[in-house]
Design goal:
The chain is built from eleven helices and 14 strands. β9 and β10 form a beta hairpin. α3 packs across α4 and α4 crosses α5.
Length: 302
């Protein structure tokens, strides 16, 4: 296991930020670490990167204990914290040279050139970091996290401040890096998690409330129901739609568009077509909705 966390608890004064948390992350696995603000995500990441100690419990990264072998842990981890700390008076290349020196890297120039290309900093590499937009500063933070070729990458909201084009580029970078590195990252963008993550861990009030493969988690809530959105060419009524076998509820979204909630015992789309024919109506559109990860997140963190 690249990351192993066992019964970790962190208490700040009287606040229990993490409460007996345990999980494992395999090598070359991309895991989304999700939760509402204050749930304990950043605290867990700071513990794994040896910035703060746990109050109780144990954890290891690449087989190294975070308490007993913290220097070895840091050699194997690339970390981008939530509040990206950078030396604003340094130039981009100068800063990456500084970080390379901290890691005692060889072939510094070629490694910096590789990182600049990988993170899309070519046009900004000769600028001072203080002159960069927030999005480009995030890219510099990613470059410093990757420059020493760590086995584990821990990213705390890495796409903060990125425009849609930049977000897509960084998302693709995470996917590419995740092919041969372990990636643990937090974000509030659910579409990003659905596109990137093999697995999702959701924390709430310091406790893990869900830990599963992304696709399985999406279907874990309300698994006994199905939702159909249908548009007829004529007016329908909730009362008549409820006469369809298995229909539990029918909501009029607008004009002739309805959302139908039904038991998941059988696919009712054929029955909806038969209902339309029986009532002299045509079905203009019909869509069976897949539950979004965002919906699962909301249900688990209420």
């Amino acid at each position: 296991m690249s990351i192993k966390v066992s019964n970790v608890t962190k208490i700040y004064s009287e606040q229990r930020a993490l409460d007996n948390v345990s999980f494992e992350v395999k090598t070359a696995e991309v895991v989304g670490f999700l939760g509402p603000n204050g749930a304990g995500k950043s605290t867990m990441m700071k513990i794994l990167t040896c910035f703060i100690p746990a109050t109780a419990g144990t954890a290891s990264v690449c087989g190294y204990d975070i308490a007993e072998e913290s220097l070895e842990v840091r050699k194997n981890v690339g970390y981008l914290p939530e509040h990206n700390p950078l030396y604003l008076d340094m130039y981009v290349k100068e800063y990456l040279e500084f970080i390379s020196g901290l890691h005692h890297l060889k072939n510094v120039k070629s490694r910096i050139a590789e990182m600049i290309e990988m993170t899309g900093l070519q046009a900004e590499q000769k600028k001072k970091i203080g002159a960069l937009s927030k999005g480009y500063r995030q890219r510099v933070g990613l470059a410093q996290a990757l420059i020493h070729d760590p086995k584990v990458l821990i990213l705390d909201e890495p796409t903060t401040g990125l425009d849609p084009n930049q977000l897509a580029e960084i998302r693709n970078l995470i996917i590419e890096v995740g092919k041969h590195k372990t990636v643990l990252f937090s974000t509030h963008i659910m579409q990003e998690v659905e596109a990137v993550c093999d697995r999702v861990i959701i924390v709430n009030n310091g406790k893990i409330v869900a830990d599963d493969v992304t696709s399985v988690l999406q279907h874990s809530q309300d698994a006994d129901k199905q939702f159909i959105t249908v548009e007829f060419d004529k007016a329908a009524t909730a009362v008549s739609l409820k006469t369809i076998e298995g229909v539990l509820d029918a909501k009029n979204l607008k004009e002739n568009i309805w959302q139908i909630e039904a038991a998941a015992t059988k696919d009712i789309r054929t029955d909806i077509f038969q209902y339309a024919v029986k009532n002299g109506m045509a079905v203009l559109t019909l869509h069976k909705e897949e539950q979004r990860l965002e919906d699962v997140f909301k249900q688990l963190t209420k």
